[in-house]
Specification:
homodimer, six-stranded mixed sheet
């Protein structure tokens, strides 16, 4: 194994006062390969004030991420890292700190109480520390997997980035506790797919759907709704790409944006621009739910595969569009104006295939429920072989993107494809899913679904803050488990979901009564939410509910639209039998980790300049 | 961190023929600390022929084990390592091999098919390779925990050591597959407790209970029974220590030995020496079950704590003893004679406390059952607060040793002490338990049990080879879950165990019928084993049985002897409530692992001499 000879340059300097700005002047440690010459394609502000800005790139060949952290107005140091759900406890951190004399960069972890400890193995590897006019730039890298049990495993899906600002020197790393710092989190898809950008047709035109110079409300959360319409006589086109337009200076404010098309049945939609929960909002806007484009913080442009596009315009397609912008304004900034939106790239030269969106997962029904006080309860919805056999074309479909969706208690979502009783492939998986960060994600590799395949979507919920069962439904306090998959060629199948057979659920309530004191009313008048509300939740009723959902037959919604089923018998269907599950891949430890430093790196610090 | 400068000496030599004996002449790599000057207190033959002999010591301060492997009649190399249950696949291996030119020592792992791969991190560290008149001696060390996900974690309890003999050179490590080698396993408690040996009283005398020059049968497994008796008029004494006596040359043959005392009620027991399953065996021997001493392969002398001894002799104590020797003779050696046994050290100066043995875990009853085809099904028995409150002295008891017991499907056993609803301490735990290796183990730290404490004993079973449910009971094809704890001062409490309430089990059978096709006869004539035999085992009936055992009230046996309960209500007792569980300790990775070599070590080889 080749160990490149480390080069290290140093410059003596002096540390000023405890709260002085300090400056890292020189390269502190340049180990391993030189910093990549390629630019950083991904960039995101970490804090609402934009003091910390992260840029990164991903090397799938080396299985590592290069990070470039820009720190504006550096005080006495900074923490940056990752944790399971964005908490600053049990986090995996890169730390730049000073003891008032020297400054150090090290790989650390925070314990359950937020106290920092140095990792025995240093996996955040500092490559360069540089002063620029904008601020201090730290360049460092981290392997996806370090095999240090304290470290975060960088996986596909959402990553919760965390940060903290050190305002003063600390005598040692162990003296730092995150609970005493200004800290925060930012969600991002760190491992962006490495997909070649398909060429755009020569006749590509653009259309901007933007907020009309909105005055952003000075409240933490605003969903802004704006209605616009396609030009008169706009014929059928294919959207082939779209990208965000974020008003300069508002990068930390604009959390996500979506463009919806209204239902074709609507003759007209009155103009509107205002908060989506406003009483002034036209009722018809609730019929504007067909997604044309969706963007969330950290996402880049979305390209359709070369052979497909999303149809809009022309007969049978509404002229009315709804833009929804989620402003996240925790600092309650006043008077900020915004014209962010989405730029659609479309072509009149229709591509070979129309793209479609299909809904997988659970039917929105209270028969699927989560007991309260569960740390990780799993519900699963099935798109059965019978449905795919009937509704998919003989050549199958290709899923190229996916948007996962739950309400507030969702913590993980995964869809797996099974064929012949064997799990074959993961369609999409997010083990750090957050209902506050739902983006359409391109799949790293498109997934082909054939007639007879089964698609299994499982969601994991945390109901530790709930007193009663959480039932399925449309309400924000009810739950969903959905994967909107984007695919081509478009088929009539819009919805392939399931829920437990209601008769078996009634058997469950009878059984609970038999083992307890007949708390659950099993009379016909009782509604399922009422029945769930009266279940005495103990280890038995919890486990048996989970066992029921893993055993009882299901009702399948194999639908052309939300109300129209394909012909056939869809009730009391057996659960798909799965003989062989996909194995979790064994974590691959970086081969070269013996070369990382065993302790923190000393960083030469310049003092002075307050 | 100090890195001792590695010293390496080499000597050129030549390799003879592919099957020639090769000799490692010189120290190959001497890294880290020098080999320990202390001798190796533990020693065990690995293979039935005694070609491989392992000695080891344990450093709890450094959290590592030094191994000294003696290889007699070395051919082209040797594998040594550990695996979950003694299989040669998915094993963690140290490998000495030659490609015909050079020889190498490396840390490797075998995949599911037995093929070897080099570990990215080399944690078996070779300290010395030396030729002695007896054979080649390899000295190497391994941390308990390496944090390499392919590596075995060395824990308390049983460790399955594995070995393999390389008969010929291999072009590379990857060319080796364990399925083509002569291999085997040996079970051992690797992490022996580090307890100071208590001094023996000056009047200590010894008594040998030995097999009477037995001709060992030429079959793989023999349990030999031999009846002997105490001298006439032998008064009450305390056993304070015992140790094995193994006939020289039979070290690999004698697997375990136990000395039992017969029931005091027996007037006399006829003499006998023969296989325990012989038709000639006197029926009364089944009343000789009170353990006085037990030894298993790899165990050393057993010392009672300084303030306690095991009473035997005198009025109320049978004069008759039964020695049981398990001969393990896989090579079916003919004509071997054996006089192995146990030497008891006893004193007439009775110590302050009598030691006692108490049985924790599950009652022997078919109501506790394991479905077939389970990979890891857990049953739990409770010694409740009500029982310890009633039966233990106000000052409590101290448990100093433990013998875990299940029948053939047992894979893990653990006893945890809980107080005030919180798990406090592990009494004994074996995550690699084997029913073929049951020894009395001294606890690393004696456990105090007070009035009102709860002792929870859980056993994990694997029934993948069974077609029908495995019910609790005495039969070898039935199951047990028992921890015999050795403690002082002796109390009247001999047995503190539980089983599920039989009425709740009948509710379970009703429930199964409701969700299936009424397969289980719930009429009063049906026996519980018959009922379990007719359960349709599907995911629901399996999970609900597990949920029932985790929820339903229990019958508690809080007994003075197997038939006499303490006074009180012991049926329909609630399960102990546990609010807080002990956390699994996070694996501690060796701090210095950055210093281990990144690849195999070249070992200089001398050829020649066949």
């Amino acid at each position: 194994m080749q160990v490149p000879s480390p080069s290290a340059r140093e410059a003596a300097s002096m540390y000023g006062t405890a709260v002085a700005v300090f400056l890292v002047i020189l390269v502190a440690a340049l180990q391993g390969s030189a910093p990549p010459e390629s630019p950083f394609p991904y960039r995101i502000p970490l804090d609402p004030e934009g003091a910390l800005e992260l840029a990164w790139n991903v090397s799938y060949a080396q299985e590592l991420v290069h990070f470039q952290l820009l720190v504006r107005g550096l005080k006495a140091g900074v923490l940056f890292g990752m944790s399971d759900r964005g908490q600053l406890e049990d986090a995996d951190l890169a730390v730049l700190w000073t003891d008032g004399d020297k400054a150090y960069f090290g790989d650390a972890w925070s314990d359950q109480k937020g106290q920092l400890h140095l990792d025995p193995q240093q996996d955040y590897q500092l490559l360069r520390a540089q002063r620029t006019p904008a601020g201090l730039t730290l360049l460092f890298r981290r392997p996806f997997s370090t095999c240090d049990p304290r470290d975060y495993l960088i996986e596909d899906g959402t990553v919760h980035l965390v940060y903290g600002i050190l305002e003063q020197p600390f005598p040692s790393l162990e003296a730092i506790n995150t609970s005493a710092l200004q800290t925060g989190l930012q969600r991002v898809q760190l491992l962006k797919p490495d997909i070649a950008v398909p060429p755009l047709p020569p006749d590509t035109r653009t259309m901007e759907v933007r907020a009309p110079d909105v005055l952003v409300p000075s409240q933490e959360t605003t969903y802004w709704c704006y209605v616009t319409e396609l030009p008169g006589g706009f014929s059928r086109h294919h959207i082939v790409m779209y990208e965000p337009i974020v008003t300069e200076g508002n990068e930390a404010l604009v959390h996500h944006m979506e463009v919806f098309q209204c239902a074709a049945e609507l003759e007209s939609v009155p103009p509107f621009s205002g908060p989506c929960d406003s009483k002034m909002k036209p009722a018809r806007l609730s019929h504007c739910r067909h997604v044309l484009a969706a963007w969330a913080l950290g996402a880049k442009a979305f390209y359709y595969p070369e052979e497909a596009g999303l149809a809009f315009g022309g007969p049978g397609s509404s002229r009315f569009l709804r833009l929804e912008v989620h402003y996240h304004n925790p600092l309650r900034i006043h008077g900020r104006r915004d014209s962010s939106g989405i730029r659609l790239y479309y072509t009149a030269s229709l591509r070979r295939f129309d793209a479609g969106i299909m809904e997988l997962g659970l039917v929105y029904t209270p028969v699927m429920a989560i007991p309260p006080q569960e740390e990780a309860f799993v519900l699963t919805g099935y798109c059965t072989d019978k449905c795919t056999q009937l509704a998919l074309p003989p050549s199958g479909i290709r899923i190229f993107a996916s948007q996962l969706h739950t309400h507030l208690t969702g913590r993980k979502v995964v869809t797996v494809l099974a064929r012949g009783g064997r799990e074959r492939e993961i369609v999409n998986k997010d083990d750090h899913y957050s209902p506050h960060f739902q983006e359409i994600r391109m799949l790293k590799k498109a997934v082909s679904v054939h007639q007879g395949d089964v698609l299994i979507t499982s969601c994991t919920y945390n109901t530790e803050d709930r007193k009663l069962a959480t039932v399925g439904g449309f309400g924000i306090l009810e739950e969903m488990c959905v994967n909107y998959v984007h695919y081509y060629p478009q088929t009539q199948l819009e919805l392939c979901k399931s829920s437990v057979d209601p008769g078996f659920l009634q058997k469950y309530f009878h059984l609970v009564n038999r083992f307890n004191s007949e708390e659950v009313c099993t009379c016909p008048q009782a509604s399922v939410p009422e029945q769930f509300a009266s279940v005495p939740w103990n280890s038995f009723s919890r486990h048996v509910l989970a066992a029921l959902y893993g055993f009882a037959p299901v009702s399948v919604h194999c639908n052309k639209s939300s109300a129209v089923r394909f012909q056939g018998e869809w009730d009391l269907q057996p659960l798909p039998e799965i003989f062989s599950k996909l194995e979790e891949p064994a974590p691959r430890c970086p081969a070269g980790r013996g070369q990382s430093p065993a302790g923190p790196t000393v960083v030469s610090i310049g003092g002075g300049k307050g």
